[in-house]
Amino acid sequence: MRESDPRIVLGLHRSRYERRILTSALELGIDAIDTSFNYRGFSAHSALSEVGSDLLPRFALSTKVGFFPAAGQAEHSLDPGRLRKAMEQTNRDLGRAPDLVFLHNPERSLTGSPDAAQDALGMAYAALEAAAAAGLCGAWGISSWDPRPLPELAVGSMPRPDVLMVRGGLLAGIDVLEASETLAARWGLGTDQLWGMSPFGGKAADPLWGKLDPQVFIEDPDDGLSALQAAFRAAYWLPRVGRVAVGTDNPSHLRELVDTLSYEADVGNVRTYRRLLRERAGRQPV
Description:
Layout: E1 8-11, H1 19-27, E2 32-34, H2 39-42, H3 44-52, E3 60-65, E4 67-70, E5 73-76, H4 80-94, E6 100-104, H5 114-133, E7 139-144, E8 163-167, H6 174-186, E9 194-197, E10 218-219, H7 227-234, E11 243-247, H8 251-259, E12 264-265, H9 267-280
Helix pairs in contact: 4-5
């Protein structure tokens, strides 16, 4: 049993929700899991409770709301009433209040004028803040796949989230990276309050990872560090985050990811990579 380490969050996006990955995570010192109201065809919370109700008190549990069932598929909404009902159902299905609830990809419902978008966001943020105050969750945050529209709307007296989770890693574009950092700065969020997700761009099995050499981003790598492991560790600096949510149903793969935490990034090479990303996008260096 390893000591607890908060830097990895076990993501359950494509999980089979098997008990063994939960017990393996705890043995490896991972005591945080992340799921969503809409995962597994809107059955993720009940599935998680069924396979590990006795284990859930040992985890810091985060989930997301924002997608809802509609005619056999999912639709996105920022409607405060629907968000509140989803959080109430989340509590019932899990048998406990989650420690953290994210507003899931709010950019999906930003239509109309900037004022209308800001009003919609403000009401959604207020709904999650009120739910936290009512004990439906311990804290609330924003989980955004594409945060680019959000910084210009983070103005005025809108509620401030406790955590921001964003797409990161070597495959995240410079616009996404910089929007994430700008948004975190406007909300005054520290590194521990900024989480990364999808460090492999959603495709850990992509042949791309057999062609790249992400070890250039690692300080003092050795022969025991694979390209995938190096890419995962580098994701903590793209953008600079305190935690990364990553999914796997394989305990051996999870152990390999935990093993990367003993390595540090080559900060100079990370900065060079970011400069090259800016140049490729036709942006001025900073």
